């Protein structure tokens, strides 16, 4: 029997009693509702093959194209491999929402653990709906209409960045062909209508055309001196507060599925170069829409 157990007041649920590779339509409907309600759902002992992982992801929507930087499982270009091997430790980790450098960032991701170190390597998710709701009402109103520019620069110099014979960065070459994209600071969830703060420190470069008229915005921005940069920095800091988070300890066969439209996540890189391997499949989303009028 399928059971859903919420893990925190704001985000995360563990789902037991279901085999994801063969779950019924009724079970999937419950999983999907938990996905919307709890924003990230976790499963144990699934051991999905690449074909099964792709089939599961397709139940959430159309799949994204292969990732431009991540390696993939042989024969399965849409199954990205996130792997640490001896001598190849993970680089610096950042809080992020996946692929916000796209005009239409992903709806969700399905991440399946293959093997893990004996200790460490957790992932943390945060609810950006809860972060938004924690803001003073005057600030919520002042953030309406603001946008931020997101770009692919966050991969530069990472272990996923490659250089050619001339020493040119693959990320830099791709970034040079892609303009930054603007997304609203406050977005409307396309299925729940809930507002979220839509920023992340890996891909969000700066706030566009900031006019500091709100007392709360000014108070945040004056902490360090430069208007937009410090507002963004302060919002990043707020997004890292543990009250809005859930932390998941992986095991082989674990699966996490998260709503990329209202969350950020962070990979804890506390395991050196001990072997760790996960497979990721990403589902297409739509262009984030601003909340035209917020009832605050």
Observed structural traits:
296 residues; alpha+beta; Double-stranded beta-helix; eight-stranded mixed beta sheet; 17 strands; 21% helix; globular
How does this model look, in words?
The chain has 296 residues and is of the alpha+beta class. It has one domain (3-286): Clavaminate synthase-like (Double-stranded beta-helix, 4-Layer Sandwich). The chain is 21% helix and 27% strand. The chain has helices at 25-38, 50-58, 128-133, 137-143, 170-176, 215-221, 227-239; strands at 3-6, 13-16, 40-43, 72-73, 76-84, 108-115, 123-127, 147-150, 181-184, 186-188, 195-197, 204-208, 245-248, 255-259, 263-267, 276-283, 289-290. The strands form four sheets. The protein has an eight-stranded mixed sheet. Strands 13-7-15 form a three-stranded antiparallel sheet. Strands 9-8-12 form a three-stranded antiparallel sheet. Strand 1 (3-6) and strand 2 (13-16) form a beta hairpin. The longest helix has 14 residues, at 25-38. Residues 222-226 have low confidence and may be disordered.
**Overall domain count:** 1
Mind telling me which CATH architecture this is? Answer: 4-Layer Sandwich
N-to-C terminal Cα separation, in Å?
Answer: 40 Å
- The CATH topology turns out to be Double-stranded beta-helix
CATH superfamily: Clavaminate synthase-like
- Beta-strand residue percentage: 25-35%
What is the CATH domain class?
Alpha Beta
Main sheet overview: 8 strands, mixed
Sheet/helix structural class: alpha+beta
What integer is the average pLDDT?
A: 89
Helix content: 10-25%
Strand elements, count:
17
Low-confidence stretches: 222-226
**Spatial ordering of strands, largest sheet:** 1-2-3-14-6-16-5-4
- H/E element sequence: EEHEHEEEEHHEHEEEEHHEEEEE
Radius of gyration: 19 Å
